[in-house]
Amino acid sequence: MGARKRNSAEALKEARKKVAFAKLNNCPTSPRKMRLAAGLIRGMEVDKAIHILKHSSLEASARLHKLLLSAISNWQAKNEGVRIEDSNLFVKEVSVDSARMLKLIQTAPQGRAFRVRKRSNHVTLIVDNKQDI
Q1: What pLDDT does 45 receive?
Q2: Checking DSSP bridges between strand 20-27 and strand 89-107, what pairing results, if any?
């Protein structure tokens, strides 16, 4: 690895230590449905986002709610002694990427078969202070 690449990798690693995030890998929901739920809370304050996800009828919102609580607890672990109410936490970034796909075969009439693709996704949620920006 070259020196320039190593320096940029170390800088990225140091920047990542300061950010509070949570990841959900191989979530068995299609990415399209998860992006709908993620769009509801992107850029919102944490308490409003929790309220919206808790009362949403989308199936993906329950998983996102749990992920948001995990990101908040990760933020608390990095910032000991700081109260959440005083910190003005907000959802900085939510990214949904497609993950592995189960390819199953469903029988069809007259000796045919159809392929069923069960999609899954990876979700990354980043929480940050309003003052840091």
Answers
A1: 94
A2: unpaired
Report how far residue 30's alpha carbon sits from residue 120's, in angstroms, rounded to the nearest whole number.
Answer: 5
Question: Residue 132 has what pLDDT?
Answer: 55
Under CATH, to which class is 20-129 assigned? alpha beta
Convert the pLDDT of each residue in 52-104 to its tens digit. Answer: 999 999 999 999 999 999 999 999 998 888 888 888 899 999 999 999 999 99
Strands lying side by side in the sheet with 20-27: 20-27, 113-129, 89-107
- Take residue 78 and report the two structure tokens written for it: 């990095």
Phi and psi torsions of 100, nearest 5°: -65, 160
Alpha helices in the chain (DSSP H): 3-18, 31-41, 46-54, 60-78, 84-87
pTM score, whole prediction:
0.85
Helices 31-41 and 46-54: crossing angle, nearest 10°?
130
Contact criterion met (CB below 8 Å) for 90 and 128:
yes
Separation between Cα atoms, residue 12 and residue 61, nearest integer Å:
30
Tell me the C-alpha distance between 42 and 68, whole Å. Answer: 11
